[in-house]
Amino acid sequence: MGTHANLVHVGDQDFETKVLKSDSPTVVDFWAAWCGPCRSIAPYYESLSDEYQGKVRFVKVDTDENPNTPTRLGIQGIPTFIIFKGGQEVGRVVGADRARLKREIDRVASN
Question: Which residues on adjacent β-strands are paired with residue 60?
Fold first, then answer.
């Protein structure tokens, strides 16, 4: 993975401080290394993180290494993208649906 200034990896231990307590809207990619659709959408997700720099934060959570957060959020399939604003879930996209993901991010970024 290349370096993207607006993309950070977060785990169970820092999810609350880095996502729920963030001042900016934050989109979280719940993924795993073995997941083909997760790998296929990853470069697109990384490019979105560059495009929305300064507007929306981008986070990745490896569901294998951090099982507690996805369980608590009721995630049943990956990739799942959840957008948080002010500590609340304001959008969710299940699956590697690029168009829907961008629409949801645009909707949150413009508010």
Answer: 9, 29
Cβ distance 62 to 6 under 8 Å? no
Domains and CATH numbers, the chain: 7-109 (3.40.30.10)
Cis preceding-peptide flag for 79 (omega within 30 of 0):
yes
Would strands 26-31 and 57-62 be described as parallel, antiparallel, or unpaired?
parallel
Closest CA to 47 of 33, 38, 58: 58
| Residues classed as catalytic | 35, 38
pLDDT, tens digit only, all 111 positions of the chain: 457 899 999 999 999 999 999 999 999 999 999 999 999 999 999 999 999 999 999 999 999 999 999 999 999 999 999 999 999 999 999 999 999 999 999 999 987
